[in-house]
UniProtKB/TrEMBL annotation:
Binding site for S-adenosyl-L-methionine: 101-107, 125, 152, 170
Protein name: RsmF rRNA methyltransferase first C-terminal domain-containing protein
Positions of the SAM-dependent MTase RsmB/NOP-type domain: 1-292
Active-site feature positions: 223 (nucleophile)
Family: Belongs to the class I-like SAM-binding methyltransferase superfamily. RsmB/NOP family.
């Protein structure tokens, strides 16, 4: 592999006798992994691959983007070492958690797995097009308790001071841990790049700390090896912000951060390093902080977004004809869109929202049309009519085709393949009309 100028000499100097083992990993294929989705009803998954020792629900292996397991959200593909981060955050059901730099959603989906459908995850991405990808992955994974936002950290901090029990800052970084998987990631690297990234990381952390409640936990992570963005940022936050570095439990293979790379600050030994020459993964850095004090976050019940009488009638008619139960959560209408949001939702009128809770659907003239999200968020038992399709029909429907049906009537159905819900269809004249979102067709 041709490294950018200055990269090799830097790590030869830093790693000394360890450097040949580190560089040798770049001649090996990248490690891949996936996680099983515990939000889904347990279904036998014929995927295999050994368990990733430091991950909950993680396995080594590869799932293709067109496989039903991926499309139905039964699994999420995520690089193995990245699977340590949410484990360190250890979110719990009922908490209010912020994932500040979240797209495409690897850690958000892992956080949601720990929380079940309880509590609130605010998952934010500053870049608008990446925020849309995040929304689509959150929807595919069947997460119903997320507020997806598209803001810079300063605007969020102004809207939500001390609002979260736990915060993850999976920071934009120089991405040296991506070089093996994606050599294009090297194009931005210069010897000065880590210092420029570190400046942005400090700015993000200043805002993140403002949003953390006293006594709350903040986890900072990167997928880069550079001490400027790892040990030195951890030492800086420990010294300059009202945050204290606390130890991380490190399963075998996971090393400590190196105090010698941060002016011998002993607190840095509390951080964790996942090195590609010490375990099967691409590499990550993780630091866990606690904020001094003790306080609980304020709960907020939205008193706005109530449905009009016509909207209520149309939604009730839809539920009665198509579902077996009312989706849980607080119903909230934003213009013609209907959402079910967690009861602990924040006041979000001053932030840019991409998606709130579960998108239930759209009010049309005198009727309600369900959203595609219902197919991956609700269990098959929540639908009155489930249509099981073959692998060949699954591929045709994903492509946008109609499917003939022996069923009569005019209503919505859940389509499943291998018992995994993947789409909503509309039965009309013994045909299942294709409602698969155009942007997801394949
Ligand atoms: C390492 S990636 C996040 C990966 C994600 N957590 C996951 O697990 O899938 C960092 C993200 O930070 C975003 N970002 C870039 N500049 C930022 C800034 N100034 N503030 C907040 N986020 C930023 C990037 O757009 C990028 O999506």
């Amino acid at each position: 592999m041709d490294f950018p100028e200055g990269f090799k000499t830097k790590y030869q100097r830093l790693l000394g006798a360890e450097a040949p083992a580190f560089f040798a990993t770049f001649q090996q294929p990248a490690e891949t992994g996936y996680r099983i989705n515990p939000l889904k009803p347990a279904a036998p998954l014929a995927l295999g691959g050994p368990a990733i020792p430091w991950s909950t629900w993680g396995h080594y292996g590869k799932v293709a983007g067109n496989d039903i397991e991926h499309v139905s959200g039964f699994v999420y593909s995520q690089e193995p070492s990245a699977q340590f981060v949410a484990t360190v955050l250890a979110p719990e059901p009922g908490e209010r958690v912020l994932d500040l730099c979240a797209a495409p959603g690897g850690k958000t989906t892992h956080i949601a797995s720990f929380m079940g459908a309880s509590g609130l995850i605010v998952t934010n991405e500053i870049n608008r097009s990446r925020a849309k990808i995040l929304a689509s992955n959150v929807e595919r994974f069947g997460i119903t308790n997320a507020l997806i936002t598209n803001n810079d950290p300063d605007s969020l901090a102004a809207a939500w001071p001390e609002a979260f029990d736990k915060i993850l800052v999976d920071a934009p970084c120089s991405g040296e841990g991506m070089f093996r998987k994606d050599p294009d990631a090297m194009q931005y690297w210069t010897p000065d790049y880590p210092a420029a990234c570190a400046q942005r990381q400090r700015e993000i952390l200043v805002m993140a700390e403002k949003m953390l409640r006293p006594g709350g936990v903040l986890v900072y992570s990167t997928c880069t090896f550079s001490p400027e963005e790892d040990e030195q940022i951890a030492a800086w936050a420990n010294a300059e912000l009202p945050l204290t570095l606390v130890p991380i439990q490190k399963p075998a293979g996971i090393a400590s951060g190196r105090p010698k790379w941060a002016d011998n600050d002993p607190a840095v030994a509390n951080t964790a390093r996942l090195w590609p020459h010490q375990l099967r993964g691409e590499g990550h850095f993780v630091a866990r902080f606690v904020k001094a004090g003790q306080a609980s976050v304020k709960r907020y019940d939205p008193q706005w977004g109530r449905l009009s009488a016509t909207q209520r009638r149309d939604f009730d008619t839809f539920v009665k004809a198509n579902l077996t139960q009312m989706p849980s959560g607080h119903l909230l209408a934003v213009k013609d869109q209907l959402f079910a949001v967690p009861e602990t939702a924040l006041d979000w009128r001053h932030v840019r929202i991409v998606r709130a809770g579960l998108h239930l659907g759209t009010f049309k003239k005198n009727r309600f049309e369900p959203s595609h999200s219902l197919a991956t968020a609700l269990p098959p038992a929540a639908f009155q009519q489930v249509v099981k399709v073959s692998q060949a029909e699954y591929l045709r429907y994903r492509h946008g085709e109609l499917l003939p049906s022996a069923l009569s009537g005019k209503h919505y159905v859940l389509l499943t393949c291998e018992d995994k819900g993947f789409a909503i269809g509309k039965l009309v004249n013994q045909t299942i009309k294709n409602l698969y979102p155009k942007g997801l067709r394949h």
